[in-house]
Amino acid sequence: QAQLVESGGGLVQPGGSLRLSCAASGRIFSVNAMGWYRRAPGQQRELVALITSGGTTNYADSVKGRFTISRDNANNTVYLQMNSLSPEDTAVYYCNADVAVVLGAHLYDYNYWGQGTQVTVSS
């Protein structure tokens, strides 16, 4: 059907920047809302940022002004630019997307998750 593949995580010092990427591939007709979530150790998964197919964005209060979500519709890819990172941003970051997939002569809407990418902010 479809899959999401993330990249761009790693280790960064406080105050540094990272850019995450997530590409959707497969039997895709269209990709609707895309987003990033994160799960810190011992905590529940939380929304970081969302972007609609039309480009409307929404951010968690904790990342407003520091993170920017964007997308490349031609390549079914979503990005998360993370600046001014702090240790509190340390988490596994997951990509999420609502995808219409083609199966035979029909379209089906599914919600997909990426495998997760570790972001560690530490000196």
Strand content: over 45%
Task: Calculate the terminal CA-CA distance, rounded to whole Å.
Answer: 41 Å
Instruction: State the major sheet.
Output: 7 strands, mixed
Fraction of residues in helix = under 10%
Q: What is the residue-mean pLDDT, rounded to a whole number?
A: 96
Supply the number of helical segments.
0
Low-confidence stretches are: none
Radius of gyration: 15 Å
Describe it.
The chain has strands at residues 2-7, 10-12, 18-26, 28-39, 46-51, 57-59, 67-72, 77-82, 91-103, 106-113, 117-121. Helix content is 0%, strand content 63%. It is mostly beta strands. The termini are far apart. It is elongated. The strands form 2 sheets. Strands 2, 4, 5, 6, 9, 10 and 11 form a 7-stranded mixed sheet that branches. The mean pLDDT is 96. Strand 4 (28-39) and strand 5 form a beta hairpin.
Provide the descriptors you would attach to this structure in a database record.
mainly beta, 63% strand, 123 residues, 0% helix, 4-stranded antiparallel beta sheet, elongated
Show the helix and strand layout.
Elements: E1 2-7, E2 10-12, E3 18-26, E4 28-39, E5 46-51, E6 57-59, E7 67-72, E8 77-82, E9 91-103, E10 106-113, E11 117-121
Parallel strand pairs: 2-11
Antiparallel strand pairs: 1-3, 3-8, 4-5, 4-9, 5-6, 7-8, 9-10, 9-11
